[in-house]
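step: validate -> pass
step: tokenize input -> pass
step: predict -> running
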Amino acid sequence: MRFSLKLLSPVFCLSLLVACDNSSRPAPDLYQQALDDGWSAFTEKSYTEAKIFFNEAKSHDAGQAGAFSGLGWVYLMQDSLNLANQQFSSGAQQSGADADFYAGWALVLNLMNNIEESTAQALQALALDVNWQLAKGTTIDTATLYLLLAENYFLTGHFSESLSYVQKINPAFSVDVFSAVGKSLLSQKIEQLSNDGG
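step: predict -> pass
step: emit ->
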């Protein structure tokens, strides 16, 4: 018996074409599973394994910022700042960037001495989640961003703003930021907090 498409209903033909086109669509379950596996490896400090999973997630859906964020954090932990920055820069063009994404990028930019951009990303992270914390095997949290902002504002000569972020960590600390002594004490306090881990 000869097979003819003319005998197929238009609705059946359409459903057949849609079913065959699934290869071009992202698989949310596979993407999320790879992302979760990446963060699990990250938590265990298995950064090489984490990179594999985050790249796998990216292969399932390169339009989401999550995999780029994971890779950015991995490269940050490995002190590969240029690679980390590349991941965050690429991820910024995708959808779904969250507080983890912007906080990681802020830290990378600070370490690369791109102070103004670092400040902008840190503020974006806090705007998305004022009680942010990375967790995932780290102690990186809102206090880390407060300290980063205190340092960034100090370096750019915004001493009052710098003091206000130090006071979010240590409310009892107060100095006259308009005096040379006050600025010196503020600088020392930022250094002390940095050495104490926030």
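step: describe -> The two ends are 78 Å apart (CA to CA).
step: cleanup -> pass
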